[in-house]
Amino acid sequence: MDFQAGILRDGNPMESLEKQLICPICLEMFSKPVVILPCQHNLCRKCANDVFQAANPYWQSRGSVISGGRFRCPSCRHEVLLDRHGVYGLQRNLLVENIIDIYKQECSSRAGAGQCPAHPHIGMGDVPVPVPAGSSCFCPSAPAQTELNNCISMLVAGNDRIQTIISQLEDSCRCTEENSEAAKQELCARFDALAAVLEEKKSELLQRITREQSDKTGFVQGLICQYKEQLEKSSRLVETAIQAMEETGGAAFLMNAKQLIKTIVEASKGGRLEKIEHGYESMDAFSVSLDHLTEAVRALDFEPAWDTFLYGCKEDNSARFISFLFCI
């Protein structure tokens, strides 16, 4: 607690002590239990809880106290982080509580003498203002100061709520950006995987076409070789027949002619080679229709549940924000 060094040198130490024992939230003397913040300022635990609840409007809606929260010290604006215990996790300031007990005892003893313990100098001339035992001070400016301080506290609490909402909205914006990047990366990965599957399937089908092409062209090339051999044999027989026609001997010609005719007949019978069927070169069997896949790809869209979720979140957030505005 920040006691001023001049409190002991003050003309009225009781009044200075009272100022040091005023809670900056309720503007009344600290009520037990008194908690000390990490910045060494003190608050009534009830007041600290009120500030904490105001700075964390969504805290109660979580259904449990598993997660903590934060609020700012009303004296120095230092940010106070709380765990799942909330303000009940803050340390009590037993020294201040003992000082309050001593002060109240002193006030009671002075009140018995009909004198305001904190403002003995205020009164009619040299006559002190009478203060009934157990009553608050009846200084003329006290009610106005109390009301003004209450208004200031309300504004400060409202500013804390707005700042908390701004921080939560900024966190939501940052999370939205991070989630959007993650969604983009996931979408790209899925499309890349789909493209890889299509590329793999395309390679497989191309290989099948290439094998069919190799088989057909190999068969046709074999037939070409066979027909060439047949053509070569037929040409040699033609040359032999021409040479036989040029011979002059009758008996020899007859013998050679009979044998040659027999060879030509046998060659013509055995020379019936295999042929290809009509349309053998066609590759229509390897045509693939991708119309249904094209339509399926064009029909790709995000799941309907996602749009419903976004719409529900927008309505929920709008309702919360409108409720918050009315609370302010």
Descriptive overview:
By secondary structure, this protein is mainly alpha-helical. It contains 7 helices and 7 strands; from the N terminus they run αββαβββαββαααα. It has helices at residues 13-20, 45-55, 94-111, 142-245, 250-270, 291-298, 304-327, and strands at 34-36, 42-44, 69-72, 79-82, 91-92, 123-124, 127-128. A 3-stranded antiparallel β-sheet has the order 2-1-5. A two-stranded antiparallel sheet has the order 3-4. A two-stranded antiparallel sheet has the order 6-7. The protein is rod-shaped, with a radius of gyration of 52 Å. The two termini are 31 Å apart.
Helix/strand class: mainly alpha
Which regions are unreliable across 5 or more consecutive residues at pLDDT < 50? 1-8, 61-66, 122-136, 321-328
Strand content: 5-15%
Strand order of the largest sheet: 2-1-5
Count every helix, treating DSSP H or I runs of 4 or more residues as helices. 7
What integer value in Å does the Rg equal? 52 Å
Count of the separate structural domains: 2
Shape: rod-shaped
Largest sheet, strands/sense/barrel: 3 strands, antiparallel
Instruction: Give the H and E element order.
Output: HEEHEEEHEEHHHH
How many DSSP-defined strands? 7
What portion of residues is helical?
A: 55-70%
Mean pLDDT: 75
The first-to-last residue Cα distance is: 31 Å
Keywords: Coiled coil, Cytoplasm, Metal-binding, Zinc, Zinc-finger
Organism: Buteo japonicus
Subcellular location: Cytoplasm
Protein name: Tripartite motif containing 63
